[in-house]
Specification:
The complex is a heterodimer. Chain A is mainly α. Helices cover 77% and strands 0% of the residues of chain A. Chain A has helices at residues 2-29, 34-39, 45-54, 61-73, 87-122, 127-141, 144-158, 176-210, 213-220, 225-262, 268-277, 281-309. In chain A, helix 7 crosses helix 10. By secondary structure, chain B is of the alpha+beta class. In chain B, a hairpin with a 2-residue loop joins strand 6 (140-147) and strand 7 (150-155). The longest helix of chain B has 18 residues, at 2-19. Chain B is globular. Classes of the chains: A mainly alpha, B alpha+beta. At the A-B interface, helix 2, helix 3, helix 5, helix 7 and helix 8 of A face helix 1, strand 10, helix 7, helix 13 and strand 17 of B.
């Protein structure tokens, strides 16, 4: 187990190196560079050449990349070309906001998704099951920016119950209650598509396990219906559910970009989009590194969770 | 099942009741919604509008604009004289002005603020990147301190628009003490002489400015300004309509009517020193024929674009210069929408059945308004006279890179001069020394008479004489039709009833220091 964990953690290094090389190439191969975008339509050739030299963009790509790697190895992610701020602090602050949003959305989508899935599986083809199938289709086909705006118009503009954007009230504010108020709309928006995926998968996993012999045996022995479903069936259906929840965690981290933009949530997603539009290489690299790292760690956590859920699974 | 449903419903209601937000705003605090977050707040390192809108509250320039126009008036300089040869500008500085950090504003500070951008060996030069240093101050040979309250700018060549250059954000005077102390971090907590002091910045959330109680020009009536970046239009408007923001700029065209009819807010409009044009490659066939370029101008229905696409947030243009400013020619005639005339001109030029061409359009970009929708209308207008246009849309960064190739046929672009001096738009965009990639003349327009008039206008410091030269040059332009002239942007802002005394500024600045809160 320890060996497995160490190996998985070591594997992080090539994974992150690969990701950073790909991102570096994609950014540098895309037309337009930071100097061009900073200077905008007023740029003269002379200014461009000077600014490119100032920004270190004239060196060969591999030199630029290796220089960046050298700094990263020493824990220095550089300074944003455009905001003039150190990248590390900036990315970590913004990532915290993304984490709050994503984690809330994940908890919402998992609990509601599993509850819906289990209920539907208990009475397959009932009214409730069909309703949840329709709701799932609806949830999965709604783009999050649209849903976000609709929720905003209803709950912020029409009813005035919730704030429309931001993470905290701009003045005073800052406590848990303030955060919670601001969190509801974006978290629900972000969770919507995931809920339906988790629900549909839970339903089919539950239907499979409910048809197993041991469930029939448990029922025959007179175990109460609730205990059969929750203890015997759900426990065994959890492995595929955990897999999909793990995938959803990654999806939510990525999907947060749109939701953050709609609700002006100060997360790493909006930062990354701004960085890409400005070709702010160090900033985008920093964001991607942090997001990739968290994605890999979530995957690792899911793998470890399997062993805990199903004692038959062992890692060598 | 019903019980669970009811329970869930009760829980949701309780949570909502618990969190339901109160709308009351603190007295004295003005909440402003921006379209995007400021990037940094060192005026010399800033290249975008939103950074300037905040940064100009903190640091000021030697010369500036009054609240309603872009004519030049004294700012941190009380007065100035220009030498006969137009090479020496001497400024008398305002006395008893202090930076927010307590250090005095003087001639040394002026010298420092400009020279750090243009002298590679200056100790503060390496603390930042100054993208527009050459564009604005490339013509400055030296900045000399005559005495603590007198400073001289020595130019390499005469340039009559130099005062207009000194109104640019990059010409802001910053506290040398603060720059030396903060080094590369100066753009994150700037220090100037302006009506507001920098207080704090939570990235992605808010920038807070506090009033400068000792502001030299006038008392400031608002204690604190909080700027919030909200990219999504609907979110920004919702915050305004629910009272969570006091002022928003940049209402999307589709929301203009809704805001005009809403009794809770006031919508204001102001045409800005900006021009949106469809550039034509003047060197390429068939556009090297003046009749073809004129035909394109007759073919496009600018009034319809302004009315239907921009919903009144644009004013049709007759040329590059904003009407009703000192350099504009009031007699200048706009090209009317006349497709028949266009067809006739095309036939005369040898294209009776039209031709096919390509129009490059950025998806978005500073000052680009609604580029794709506007270009689509232009495409269909041109089709009606037989010109088949293929639209190619590109991301802004890729677009700028592509425009350097000189391969363009037609391209959509805009220019925000930020002031009304005709030199600041007519020279860079249309003088033949400014051909891309050396300058922003991407239409590759060249007319010797026009070049000469613009050059003469730079050598003359008398504004009346300059105006005559520019008027003549504009008449040449309209006849030559190097672009399809489209519109000047009308800016919009909407604010709550408690906001008093706010005006939009033609320079696109956002002067919240004129506001008082009821």
């Amino acid at each position: 187990m320890k060996y497995y964990l160490a190996r998985r953690l070591l594997l992080l290094v090539p994974v992150l190196a690969g990701v950073s090389i790909i991102i570096f190439m994609v950014l540098h191969l895309a037309p337009g560079d930071p100097a061009e975008i900073m200077l905008g339509s007023q740029a003269t050739q002379e200014d461009l050449v000077r600014l490119r030299a100032d920004l270190g963009l004239n060196e060969p790509l591999h030199v630029q990349y290796l220089r960046w790697v050298g700094h990263v190895a020493r824990g220095d992610l550089g300074r944003s070309l455009w905001m003039k701020r150190p990248v590390l602090g900036e990315v970590l602050t913004r990532f915290r906001a993304t984490l709050v949003l994503t984690a809330t959305a994940l908890v919402l989508s998992t609990t509601i998704g599993i509850a819906l899935g289990v209920t539907a599986a208990m009475r397959p083809n009932s009214m409730l099951d069909r309703l949840s199938a329709v709701a799932s289709l609806f949830g999965a086909s709604m783009p999050s920016f649209w849903l976000g705006i609709v929720l905003m118009v209803i709950f912020a503009l029409q009813l005035g119950w919730l704030p429309a954007s931001g993470m905290y009230a701009p003045h005073s504010g800052g406590d848990a209650r303030d955060l919670l108020t601001h969190l509801i709309l974006p978290a629900v928006t972000l969770a919507a598509a995931s809920v339906t995926i988790v629900a549909r998968l839970t339903r089919s996993a539950m239907l499979d396990t409910l048809a197993q012999d041991y469930v029939r045996t448990a029922r025959a022995k007179g175990v109460s219906s609730g205990a059969v479903v929750l203890r015997h069936a759900l426990g065994n259906a959890l492995v595929p559910i955990v897999t999909v929840v793990g995938v959803q965690a990654g999806y939510l981290l990525g999907g947060a970009v749109l939701t953050e933009t709609v609700f002006a949530w100060p997360g790493v997603g909006t930062l990354m989009v701004q960085g890409i539009l400005a070709r702010d290489f160090p900033l985008v690299q920093g964001c991607v590194l942090v997001v990739a790292l968290s994605f890999v760690l979530v995957n690792l956590a899911v793998d470890l969770l399997y062993a805990w859920l199903d004692p038959r699974i062992r890692y060598e | 099942m019903r019980q669970t449903g009811t329970a869930a419903f009760v829980i949701v209601l309780t949570v909502l009741a618990f969190v339901a937000s109160a709308g009351a705003q603190p007295a004295g605090t003005l909440l402003v919604g921006l379209v995007a977050e400021p990037v940094n707040l060192d005026p010399a390192q800033v290249t975008d509008l939103n950074s300037n809108r905040v940064g100009r509250r903190i640091a000021e320039t030697l010369v500036t604009f009054p609240d309603e126009s872009t004519q030049i008036v004294p700012g941190l300089a009380e007065s100035w004289t220009i030498s006969k040869d137009g090479l020496k500008y001497t400024f008398k500085l305002r006395r008893n002005v202090r930076f927010h950090d307590g250090s005095p504003f003087d001639a040394e500070a002026v010298k420092f603020s400009i020279e750090r951008q243009i002298l590679a060996e200056h100790p503060a030069n390496k603390l930042g990147k100054y993208p527009f240093a050459n564009y604005f101050f490339g013509n400055v040979k030296a900045v000399e301190v005559v005495d603590p309250h007198t400073v001289e700018f020595i130019l390499k060549e005469p340039r009559a628009s130099f005062l207009a250059v000194l109104t640019a954000g990059a010409a802001s005077i910053v506290s040398p003490t603060a720059v030396k102390k903060l080094g590369a971090d100066y753009p994150l907590s700037p220090v100037g002489t302006g009506p507001f002091k920098f207080a704090s910045w939570d990235r992605g959330q808010r920038v807070v400015l506090e009033k400068n109680a000792g502001y030299w020009k006038h008392p400031v009536n608002v204690d604190r300004v909080i700027y919030r970046p909200i990219v999504e239009d609907q979110a920004r408007l919702t915050e305004l309509l629910t009272g969570a923001l006091d002022l928003v700029v940049g209402a999307p065209p589709d929301a203009v009517a809704q805001l005009e009819n809403n009794p809770r807010v006031t919508l204001v409009k102001q045409v800005g020193a900006h021009v949106w044009y469809l550039g034509i490659n003047n060197q390429k066939k068939p556009f090297d024929d003046k009749r073809v370029r004129q035909a394109l101008n007759y073919a496009v229905n600018k009034d319809a674009i302004v009315r239907d696409v921009l919903k009144g947030t644009g004013s049709p243009s007759r040329g590059p210069v904003l009407p009703n400013t000192w350099g504009a020619d009031p007699a200048l005639k706009a090209y009317p929408y006349d497709p028949e005339r266009a067809k006739k001109l095309l036939a005369e030029a040898g294209y009776p059945s039209g031709f096919s061409t390509t129009l490059w359009v950025p998806e978005s970009g500073s000052g680009m308004q609604s580029p794709v929708a506007m270009s689509t209308v232009i495409q269909s207008n041109l089709k009606a006279v037989g010109v088949n246009v293929t639209l190619q849309t590109m991301e802004w960064g890729a677009y700028l890179a592509k425009l350097r190739s000189k391969e363009q046929d037609l391209f959509a672009l805009s220019w925000m001069a930020g002031n009304e001096d005709p030199d600041m738009v007519m020279y860079p965009l249309l003088h033949s020394t400014q051909w891309t990639p050396n300058g922003p003349n991407r239409a590759l327009y060249k007319n010797d008479k026009y070049d000469e008039l613009l050059h003469q206008a730079r050598l003359t410091t008398d504004q009346k004489k300059r105006a005559e030269l520019y008027r003549e040059a504009q008449r040449i332009l309209v006849d030559d039709a190097p672009w399809i002239f489209v519109d000047h942007e009308i800016q919009t802002a909407a604010f709550a009833k408690r906001v008093q005394g706010f005006k939009l500024h033609p320079s696109f600045d956002l002067r919240v220091e004129t506001i008082s809160l009821k």
